[in-house]
Design goal:
379 residues; alpha+beta; Nucleotidyltransferase, domain 5; 4 domains; six-stranded mixed sheet; five-stranded antiparallel sheet; 10 helices
Length: 379
């Protein structure tokens, strides 16, 4: 229990003087002075030992500070933070460990050092909600693709196209595009496929580039399917379906876009290439136990064919060519299967339901024709 705030030193001397008297009742004195017996005997012992200035408070600073770090380590922490202003304690600790520092400080100690040096903004101190993580078992099982929202440059807007491997979080693409048209994306994908090969499946949102107004497909996604790659779309208005790509785009914004002014697309692409190399090869990833994405990624064994392979259907399929407006003819009827397949051949396959034919493009069913009702439903 503390002493009263009024002249504590004189009270201590007075108390000890009374406590030293013969037949003094120390317990009663403690009650009257409002202190504990432990405090009373501490001051009596210091007075008996004739310590200099025994009635003054000693420093409460601990003899040992396990969390205190030396100036050299603190300089190293600030150097990593200076090079990567968006990195926190966990990533910086992983970097120090990787760079050969013996027993680097705990992440919380590093965070405290950053805060002490004014390196952490208030919004960075908010607690994050832990997430349950899911991932594909192998690299290239699934790529997540999206456009990071456009931003202005000195010579026009830039639309960053980003693609992340679901298993390894490896960024196979960060391309500065001048628009979000299908032809622009196809060119970017061709460059990526030539280097990294083909994934088993690609996941994208419902943007106009990869989902048509008259069908779930576009010429771009039809081309991707023609390469033998599966297509999946995220649930509308549920960006968490593409959580890894969304998280990557947040990192891109924080580390390459925020507070930056670019001259044009060429300038953007140079900086994107630097960022992508750092992200894949240097930046510790918390979801990977602080490993880097490149350590878990492998190039796909499915190489990109420079010439599109011929489409093969079952010998029992009825093969029809889709017309200019996305229609095909069957038994004197015309059925709309989508403009995405204009000029392509599709396979019509009987189903177990009477009068219902499944329409396949490559290996995927894209529509269902009901001959009895004269209707076509795209799937």
């Amino acid at each position: 229990m503390p002493w009263k705030e009024i002249t504590p030193m004189s009270e201590r001397r007075e108390f000890v003087s009374f406590a030293r008297q013969q037949q003094a009742n120390v317990g009663e004195l403690c009650r009257r002075y409002g202190i504990s017996r432990k405090t009373a005997y501490k001051w009596m012992a210091r007075a008996a030992a004739q310590e200099p200035n025994w009635d003054t408070d000693k420093s409460r600073r601990p003899h040992n500070s396990p969390a205190k770090i030396c100036e050299e380590v603190e300089r190293a922490i600030l150097a990593v933070r200076g090079a990567h202003p968006a990195w926190g304690g966990r990533k910086i600790r992983a970097c120090l460990e990787r760079d050969g520092w013996d027993a680097p400080p705990a992440a919380s100690t590093i965070t405290a050092a950053l805060r002490r040096n004014g390196q952490i903004a208030p919004e960075e101190s908010k607690k994050r909600v832990p997430m349950e993580r899911f991932e594909k078992p192998r690299p290239n099982d699934l790529w997540q693709m999206d456009f990071k929202g456009r931003f202005p440059t000195a010579s026009g807007p830039c639309h960053p196209l980003t693609i992340v491997d679901d298993h390894s979080r490896f960024a196979v693409c960060v391309t500065a595009c001048n628009d979000e048209r299908e032809g622009t994306v196809q060119k970017a994908l061709t460059d990526v496929f030539r280097v990294y090969g083909l994934p088993v499946r690609m996941l994208m949102d419902n943007g106009s580039c990869w989902k048509g107004t008259d069908s779930p497909y576009t010429r771009l996604t039809a081309w991707i399917m023609r390469l033998g790659v599966g297509i999946s779309h995220g649930r509308p208005y549920h960006p968490q379906t593409q959580g890894k790509n969304e998280r990557f785009n947040r990192t891109l914004k924080a580390e390459a876009l925020k507070g930056r002014l670019y001259d044009g697309l060429a300038h953007c692409q140079r900086e994107f290439d630097i960022f992508r190399t750092c992200y894949n090869m240097e930046r510790p990833h918390e979801a990977l136990d602080m490993a880097v994405p490149a350590s878990r990624y492998r190039i796909s064994p499915f190489t990109y064919p420079e010439t599109l392979p011929a489409i093969e259907y079952l010998g029992t399929d009825i093969v029809r060519k889709v017309g200019p407006a996305g229609y095909l003819s069957l038994r004197k009827g015309r059925y709309h299967v989508g403009r995405a397949f204009t000029g392509e051949s599709v396979g019509l396959r009987p189903t177990e339901r009477d009068g219902v034919m499944a329409v396949y493009f490559c290996r995927r069913q894209v529509a269902e024709i009901n001959l009895l009702a004269g209707t076509c439903i795209q799937v």
